[in-house]
Amino acid sequence: MRSSGRVRQPLLPLGGIMRLNIVHRTRYRYSSPVSENFNEVRLQPVSDDGQECHHYELKTSPVASLRRYHDFHLNLVDHFYIGEPHESLEIEARSVVTTLRDPRRLEGVSFPRSRLGECLRLERCYDFLQRSEYVAQDVEVWRMAQDVGMGHDDAWGLALAMLHHVYREFTYDPAATTVHTRLLEVLALKRGVCQDFAHIMIGLCRISGIPARYVSGYLYVKPGENLRGELASHAWVEVYLPGHGWLGLDPTNNCPVDQHHVKMAVGRDYADAAPIRGNFKGRASQQMTVDLKIVREDLDA
Description:
- By secondary structure, this protein is of the alpha+beta class.
- The protein is built from 6 helices and 14 strands.
- The longest helix is centred in the middle third of the chain and has 15 residues, at about 155-170.
């Protein structure tokens, strides 16, 4: 799919609001019994100036006691442990969230590229300017960033140019990569999914001096809407500009983050914000299936 280079227009009237009912069910089947199963779950939608989480409930089968804490990036994490042998695991998260991002917030955003060095002195930005587990800062990334950034004196304009470039030059292909694929592999393949598109854009931004972080969440897609990434969890990018804060951009769909996006966790890359991470004791292989249902209460019900 190719782009004309323009940002897609907001998909709702300016200032629109969505109330979404979300059910996310993940099942693991093991080839033989396993035990000592530890898991971290980052599935609760955040409450911030762009959305409000009204309800969240997490259940597991086998039943496990949940412990909650905030991680280094202030994401809310549910942790649980299953000690007894089991042949399957189901994790079900239910939430109700209102999204109220107003695209007009991005009108008039501007920050001189020559002042991006100021971000290195901000504690909130430092980690999001460095290389990370999935995001390299090798010469291939630098060369692409130089080509994309040529002629851009405004940092926001540069971020938008990177948004367009990733959407235009990389093919959306769910079969091309896995959750373990790193940035340099995606550069070589020129294809991937939302996780890969986010990592590419983050790498381009960081090596150009723009703080950028990974966001995991959901994407609501009404039948007939031309959006990619709605099958399970979604991923996008937030860039930081002094005076404007963190601004969301979705390179998979070539658009600013709007009411269709439900934010759950942030981090340097996928390793920090994965919806579910775990390990178990045993020699079994596992098969995972994910069911996601998002209903817009005021329309779809």
